[in-house]
Write a structure and sequence with these properties.
Keywords: Cytokine. The chain is α+β, with helices and mostly antiparallel strands. Helix content is 35%, strand content 17%.
Length: 101
């Protein structure tokens, strides 16, 4: 993976596919950086994108949605302390019910 970029001075040309983006950062305008930019870390390169561009906004929406879906999926893998636990005597009665069917 590419190393972190300190500051984008110009916007990159070319397309970036959502599936190629590993992560992104927001660069604000300041004394060290003369432009606002979205820094996209892809599988092969680091790209600087204009946050006002319509295609960049759409890409960011897709990336945020992908992150939300990823968080939702992994939420179900985590242990839930508030779930009721079936006692041993109830487990035995469930086994009896399944056998009788």
């Amino acid at each position: 993976m590419q190393r972190d970029v300190q500051c984008c001075m110009l916007y990159s040309q070319g397309k970036v596919r959502t599936k190629d983006v590993l992560r992104f950062e927001v660069q604000t305008e300041g004394p060290d950086c003369s432009i606002q930019a979205i820094i996209l870390y892809t599988k092969k390169a680091v790209k600087c994108a204009d946050p006002r561009d319509r295609k960049v906004k759409r890409l960011l929406r897709k990336l945020l949605e992908r992150q939300r879906l990823k968080n939702y999926r992994t939420m179900w893998l985590l242990p839930h302390d508030n779930l009721p636990v079936m006692s041993e005597d109830k487990k035995d009665s469930w086994a009896v019910l399944n056998v009788q069917e």
